[in-house]
Design goal:
Helix content is 19%, strand content 39%. By secondary structure, it is α+β, with helices and mostly antiparallel strands. Strands 1, 2, 3, 4, 5 and 6 form a six-stranded antiparallel beta sheet that branches. The longest helix is centred in the last third of the chain and has 17 residues, at 70-86. The protein is globular, with a radius of gyration of 15 Å.
């Protein structure tokens, strides 16, 4: 695992250069192929010492994104896990 820099959350891998307050960004997790059936991308972000958010982006012909609190992200993860189990995937 990569060492975190002083004053940065452990998951921070880069800073947003357009943020005056210091916006921390994690690596992105990608699934799917945008040009085929669509792509989903997720990453963590935090501005200054504020709350941490999970951002989800869905893209195909256009894109939409939503920023979730970590509590809401856990509920989404649990719901997706339940749906995958119902479909026979572990």
């Amino acid at each position: 695992m990569t060492q975190s820099r002083p004053g940065h959350p452990s998951w921070c891998r880069k800073d947003d250069p357009n943020s005056a307050l210091g916006r921390h960004l994690s690596v992105s997790v990608r699934a799917g192929v945008q040009r085929k059936d669509g792509e989903a991308v997720a990453w963590l972000s935090r501005t200054g010492h504020g709350p941490t958010w999970l951002t989800l982006l869905a893209a195909h012909m256009t894109h939409a994104s939503v920023r979730l609190s970590l509590d809401d992200a856990v509920r989404l993860r649990d719901g997706i896990t339940k749906l995958l189990r119902q479909a026979g995937h572990e």
